[in-house]
UniProtKB/TrEMBL annotation:
It is a lipid-anchor. It is found in: Membrane. This is Lipoprotein. PANTHER family: D-METHIONINE-BINDING LIPOPROTEIN METQ, LIPOPROTEIN. Keywords: Lipoprotein, Membrane, Palmitate, Signal. It comes from Candidatus Enterococcus willemsii.
Amino acid sequence: MKKILGSLLLASSILILGACGSGNEKSETLVVGSVGSDAEIWNFIAKSDAAKEAGLTIEVKDITGGPVTNKATVDGDVDANAFQSIGYLESFNEESPDKLVPVAATYVEPMGIYSEKFKSVEEIAEGSTVALADNPSNTTRGLRLLETAGLIKLKEDFDDGVGTPEDIVENPKKLKFTLIDDLTGPRILPDVDVVLISNTIALEGGLNVLQDSIFHEEADTAARTSINVLAVREDRKDEESLKKLGELYHDPEVQAYIEETFEGTKVEVTTPIKEIWGE
């Protein structure tokens, strides 16, 4: 009887260990580097049923600053990052010997023109100071938005990747321009006449672009360079587990959370990445 019981216990132990081993083999851990509100989204995804069904354990690192997040991806400290637009990514790749590429499009969100001194773009006074983000992607995007708002006119061959205030050919209100760190936009709002802020940074400052800006982009007409993406190191772009991250972002449960939490300021983009990135 003792021998029989011993055999049964041994068999049960083998089955339990085998089941645990099988589960571990199916689960893969991926680290996603993100920023602010995007990190909130990925923390939600990490706890979702969809992530479990995909066999992924997701760890989220909330990193302050885009350049630091991209460097962490290049160095392998994170497997993928989620915070940047195509325009921002292209600017990074121009300056870096190590390239990152997108594996999925995620969303587009409007950039807004904000002011505590003026209630509309028409009210903006002559000689007002306008603060623009100091990275090439958002400087360019901000100038385009100012042109759309009717405040300036840009030269015909304006480069949507590396535009600067020097590309302005008409400035009827004689606006003055200053470049600022992206992250400081909400904080300096009381100190400048006008400031352009991307929505991710605006959300961190308690601003809703659809409600608090005096003018903003229309998400459905946003340029290709304004589309946000999930980015990975170039030599890892074909890994299936990283592609699964893109699928998880578009899970219906995740999208319902984003819509409710961010009140329509992050508009889903489902276009295949090959159509956007061109590779």
